[in-house]
Each structure stands twice: as C-alpha cells, then as structure tokens.
Amino acid sequence: ERNDEVEHVSAGDIDMKVTIDGDLSKIKENQNHYLWFIKPKKAENLDITIAYDEIKLDYAINGLKCLDDEYINSGIAPELTFDGNAFTMTEGVPGNEIDKEKTIALIKEAIKNMDPVLTLENENCYLVPIDKEASEKEQKLLSQLNSYLDVVITLTFGEEKEVIDKAQIYKWLSVGTNNEVIFDNEKIIEYIDNIGKKYETMGQTREFLNSYGETIKVSGGDFGWWINRKAEAEAIINDIKSLNSTTREPNFLQRAGAFGENDFGNTYIEINLTDQHLYAYKDGNKIVDCDIISGDPVNGLETPTGVFNMRFMFTNYNFVRKDFSKKLKYWMVFYGNTVDTNIGIASCDWITNFGGTAYRGAGSLGSIYVNEADAKTLYMELPGKDFPVIIYKERR
Fold first, then answer.
1. Which of these, 47, 50, 66, lies nearest to 15 by C-alpha position?
2. What digits encode the pLDDT tens for the residues 337-389?
3. Contact at 8 Å (CB) between 249 and 155?
C-alpha cells in the first residue's frame, strides 16, 4: 500500500487448502534420482485445486486498514497561491482512498492465482493517482502564470497614470480543469469600471468659463470621455498573454477635448440660447461670432441644453422632415439617434434676420440656424467630429 504500508492475508487466516489430483509420490518413485540433471522426456501434469473459507476471507478483508474508513485519508489537492510576488503551488497529498470494490476483487483474484504480492499503486486502486507527468505540467503552468505577472501595463489619462502590475493581475488569473490559464473577464471589467469613475466625464455637470467672462454650470449632454470596456478588457488580456509591457491610452468609445477638470479643450462651439448667439473657438482662437435662430420653445421644439459631442458634418445635404424639406449647404449633427430626431447646426439661406426673439414662435425644429458664411467657416475650420458643442440658456 502507499506510504510503505504492508498488510497480509495469510493462508491460515482463510483455511486455505490445496488439493492435488494424482499420485505425486508415485511420480517421484518413477524418477531416476541419479539422472536429476537430465530433463525428463515428458512432463507430468497434475491438477491442483485451491479451496478456502469464503466467510473467513471476507472477514480477513474487512479487517484490512486500507478498507477501513477510520484510516482513509482522501488527500489534499495541490493549491495555487500568490505570496505577494509570485505564484506557487502547494504540494498536494494524494491520500490513500481506494476503489474498495476493485481492490476486494483483486485480492480474491490474487489468492485464486496464488500471487504472493498485490501492489495497489500498480493496479490503479487509488482514487487519486500519483502522477509525475501532472507535476511537470504544474511546473510549466507556474512558469506561465509568473511570466504573466512580470507584465506591466501603464494606462495614461493625460498626465495621470494607472499602472496594472502583478498586484492587480494575479486577481484575474485562475486555472481550469485542464491546467489552462483562465482570465476573469468580469473582474477586469470591474477594474475598468473603477478607473472610469475617476476619468470618465460623459454626461457630467461641468463648470464652464463662457465668452462673457462668467463661470457657469452646464449639465446634460453626451460629450466626454467614455472608456470602451469590452475593447479595453480584450486589450489588457492580449497584452498579458503576449507578455507585452506597454504604456498607452485605454480604448475609448468616445473622446473629449482634454483630460482633467476642463475636458472641453480649446476647440469648441458655444451657444447661448437666451442671447441667441454662437461662438466658435479653434485652438483657443475665436473663429465665429454670430447670431442664431434656435428651436421654437412656443411650439415645444426648444433646443436641448448640455454639452454635446459633434457627431457628423455634411455638405450639400438634403434635409427632409415632415412639413419641412430643404437642401442645406452645411449640416452639422450633435444630437439625436435617428435621421428624424437629429438636431444640429444648419446653414440657412432663407432667413436674413438672426438673433433677438425671432426664434419664439418662428424658430426651428430644434436645430441651430446660422447664416451660410458662418456655417462654412464652422465646416471648414473645425474637426469633422468629436469636439464639444456647449449649449446653455442664460448668463449666471
């Protein structure tokens, strides 16, 4: 048995008897003892019958420690641990739990065949075998896991950094039933969520220094930093698997103008609905300063306020809505999920008087009308998308 344990079932324990069919003494008498060194010309066959008391055998077997639950140790599986610096594998204890039914059958078979020794390990009687090959696989697995821990990924958010190293990576790793490394995608997403709480700005209330020299608060809208969780989780896993220590920005679904408290950057459009006025800045320089006509609040079509992300810019666009159809030289969309709900900045060649109170009762469907010359400047000078459109009602 394991651990150099030896137990016995003796012939005397089970009243074993051997019966030989034939006269062995007569065969001996017929031999010439002077010719002992010469092989006989023919073999003499005798039938041997083995008999024993089966009740006593069952009693002897039941008395074996290897079959006694009191002495059985199911063992301890090897366990993967992290000591703060590296993964280690505790040495497992295979235990001594056996397949009882198989072992009993083998004992009876050994007695029947007069086999003097039955080695349980060789006959695979133990439920948890000692597998040297598995031990070698575990060492390879440890080497792979610890190589992953050497990876350092630095995510940059402007001047700010988030470092992903072994202190974080080990929490994401586990081992499957086939000794394969498994990455916990949910925990990685949770980590990205926590980063997002620090750096994402989409939809937040912001303080904004407007063109009137006043600091106001602007709420709502969809502009701001927004991390692409799925793509970033995949990128982190790929970096670790390829042992790629790197410094990079995370994957974003949407970018803002700058990192930090003022994520507007210095290229943006500012619209004051109360004053019916638009300002546009490129790299901090004012490029447009003009009156507008916004959505008609009297008819429930008021332009929404907030900080919006410029999505698309078109030229020579056929604008078709219910009861309204125009060919727009310039059309710049910053709001809405469908063609029918889109709101943007439209070049307007059918109106000559902008600003004032013209928008009340005679305003747009929600979009911002500007003259064609100013619309051209916006279209030509500003990026095609991904910069803020800041809309508010009054100076405070």
1. 50
2. 888 889 999 999 988 899 999 999 889 989 999 999 999 999 999 999 999 99
3. yes
Distance CA 309, CA 13 (A): 92
Q: Which is higher by pLDDT, 132 or 11?
A: 11
User: Residue 364 carries which DSSP code?
Assistant: B
CB 187 within 8 A of CB 249: no
Q: How do strand 312-321 and strand 324-335 relate by DSSP bridges? A: antiparallel
In terms of Cβ atoms closer than 10 Å to its own Cβ (0-12, 13-18, 19+), residue 210 is middle
Q: What is the DSSP letter of 249?
A: P
Contact 209, 396 (CB under 8 A): no
Yes or no: say if 386 and 254 are a contact pair by the CB < 8 Å rule.
yes
User: DSSP characters for 204-219?
Assistant: --EEEE-TTS-EEEE-
User: What is the pTM for the complete model shown?
Assistant: 0.70
Q: For residues 99, 101, 107 and 112, what is the CA-based torsion angle, rounded to 10 degrees?
A: -150
